[in-house]
Amino acid sequence: MTEISTGGDVVTYINVFTVAPEHQQRLVELLQHMAREVMPKQPGYVQANIHRGLEGTRVANYNQWRSQADLAAAREDPEVRACMEQVLEIATLDLVPYEVVSVHRP
After folding, report:
1. What is the pLDDT of residue 97?
2. Where are the domains of the chain?
3. Among 17, 43, 90, 102, which has the minimal tally of Cβ within 10 Å of its Cβ?
4. CA 96/CA 105 separation, integer angstroms
5. pLDDT digit string, tens, across residues 9-32
């Protein structure tokens, strides 16, 4: 289960993919494969959460890494690169690092 808190020792990325509706499910499957099989092999990977946009054209991936350097190193891995090539054949990506500044719970 994802735990979101301020002052953490992780870097959070909220990646928003734009995809044609007919490719949304395939994109979800590719990202799930990466989250389950590929990224756990990478040093510094913490977790990923995949969200399907109900409008059919977006998929969000909320993922966390120990550092930006860890993610940069993972991007150079041949298996990661091969998976991302498949992803980018059907989707565009807005990749942005974030810092948690506030968490609100009842």
Report:
1. 85
2. 11-98
3. 102
4. 25
5. 888 999 999 999 999 999 999 999
Q: What is the radius of gyration, based on Cα positions, of the chain?
A: 14
Contact assessment for residue 74 and residue 39, using Cβ atoms and an 8 Å cutoff: yes
> Has residue 51 got a pLDDT over 90?
yes
Q: Which residue has the tokens 């409008």?
A: 55
CATH of 11-98, one of 1.20.1730.10, 1.20.1250.20, 3.30.70.100, 3.30.70.270: 3.30.70.100
What stretch of H or E contains 10? Answer: none
Per residue in 62-96, pLDDT (tens digit) is 999 999 999 999 999 999 999 999 999 999 999 88
Q: Which of 58, 37, 45 is nearest to 13 (CA)?
A: 45
How does residue 1 score in pLDDT terms, banded at 50, 70 and 90?
low
Give ∠ CA 11-2-64 in degrees, rounded to 5. Answer: 20
C-beta of residue 30 within 8 angstroms of C-beta of residue 43: no
